[in-house]
Please model this.
Amino acid sequence: MDTKRLTLFAGHYGSGKTNIALNYALHLKQEGLPVTMADLDIVNPYFRMKDSEALLNNAGIRLICSPYANSNVDFPAMPKEIYGLVADTEEYGVLDIGGDDRGALALGRYVPDILAENNYAFLLVANAARPLTRTAEDTLEVMQEIEMTCGMRFTGIVNNTNLGLETSAEDVLASLDYIEKLSRLSGLPVEMTCAKRDLCPLLENKVQNLFPLDLQKLYYMLNTEVPYGKSDI
Model:
C-alpha cells in the first residue's frame, strides 16, 4: 500500500479498526516518519486509543483524543488539535473513525480540507465475523452509509476477519472469498489482510498484502460466531 500523509480507518462496530490504526501508526514510525494518532471515535466507549497512550508515547507517537476519553463523561467532544493535524502537511496522521454512519459524522467537518490536499487513504475495515457484516453485500451497505454521512469515498479495503485470540490461519484463509467479492462489488482494491503476528508465517505466500498485528490491550473481549472456520466462540 502506498503511504499517504493521512490514513483513515473506518468500519462497522467491532471491525477492529482501532487495533489496526494503532499497528499502522507504529509501522509508519518504524519507517522513520513523524506520526500522530487521532481518535475520532465518539461512539464506542470501550475500546479507545487512550488505552494505548503509554505505548504510543514510548514509540514517539503523539496521540490526539477527546479530553473525556476513558472517563465517565459521555460527551462527543473533538479536540481542536485534529484541525492542526489535517493542516500540517509535514506530519503523517493515522485517524481512527467511529463505527458506522453515526461515527462518521465526526469526520465530516474535516473532509473539505482532506479532499483539498488529496494525499489520503480512506480504508474500510471489513470483518466477516461480525454479525452485521457477514456477507459482502451487507458490508457494502455499511460502506455506502459511511460514505454518504461523511461526504468522502473510500479508497481501499482492509480485511480484518478474525475471531480474536481464537483466530486460526484457516479462519483468515476462509475469509478471502468474502473480501474478494467485496472488492468486486465496490470496485476498491484490498490494500491489506490483517492477521495476528504469530499466524503470519503460516499465511505467507497464501495471502497478498499481509499485515501483522499485535493486539491492543483490552481489544479482543468481544465474542462472536461465524459460519465458517475452526473456531466457534
User: Anything to note?
Assistant: The chain has nine helices and eight strands.
